[in-house]
Design brief:
Radius of gyration of chain A: 15 Å
CATH class of chain A: Alpha Beta
Structural class of chain A: alpha+beta
Distance between the termini of chain A: 33 Å
Number of helices of chain A: 4
Largest interface: A-B, 35 and 35 residues
Oligomer: homodimer
CATH topology of chain A: Thiol Ester Dehydrase, Chain A
Shape of chain A: globular
């Protein structure tokens, strides 16, 4: 059975691949979304570096875009039209990654940012994402500040 | 006349395009290097986002790779063989960019990091890069910590 979340995930992947060429070059895909946790992935091969491990730029772009996608999904499920941009990003590379890249992003803001968005017309909040190895070790973690403006 | 720096820049671009597929997807090029300042560029079109401006992930990847390239060139001109990785990255997006992307990175470390590398076998130092608009306004600035290990 196709759920509302499955449809939103398919829509998100289509937006990425049609409107952000680099997401297609990275072969970025949505794995799952349950309303809170968004998981995305990309093959290692198009995202490799000179050391044969995941390219730092790909790890950043995949995580920044996962945070963007998380925000997009939260707006879409509430039928809110908003323009989402990233204002700042910070990333730490903890160990080289020699496997396909899986990104996890939980939506757990400290305040109700969607209510604030509807009241004030704009909101800014942090989102964290991480990439762990298949054996559960942290490879990379990212934190971005996202700014959303209500489209009316 | 082709200078030593021109040859090193050509070599750097070849390494990027052959060994880092995403650099080719972004159409990243070396513009110039004078021993201190490295300038790189990429067309906007393959690096566009849903807003028709430069994708945040591309802006990060181009700047992180320019810092990597700056480090590579400093090692090559001294004939030092080293493995370069980025340990952390921080980026601020100041305004949307609707034109081709030009990155500037100056090599001006506080200490002589190449001497430290040769003495200790490894060194870690920050590099800053920026993207300005054609009219000279700051679009984006990046700061990365690079770690280099001597290859012997």
């Amino acid at each position: 059975m196709t759920t509302k979340f499955d449809e939103l995930c398919q829509e998100l992947e289509t937006i990425w691949h049609q409107q952000i060429p680099l997401s297609a070059a990275m072969r970025m895909q949505v794995v799952s979304f349950d309303g809170v946790t968004l998981i995305t992935r990309a093959d290692l091969e198009p995202n490799i570096n000179v050391h044969g491990t995941a390219f730092a730029g790909s790890l950043y772009a995949l995580q920044a875009l996962t945070g963007w996608g998380q925000t997009h999904l939260q707006l879409r499920r509430q039928n809110i039209a908003g323009a989402i941009v990233i204002a700042t990003g910070k990333i730490e590379y903890k160990r080289p990654l020699s496997e396909n890249i899986v990104v996890t992003c939980r939506f757990e803001p400290a305040t109700d940012v969607l209510v604030e968005l509807e009241e004030k017309g704009r909101v800014r909040f942090p989102l964290a994402t991480q990439v762990t190895t298949e054996t559960g070790k942290l490879a990379c973690r990212f934190r971005g500040e996202y700014a959303v403006k209500l489209l009316v």
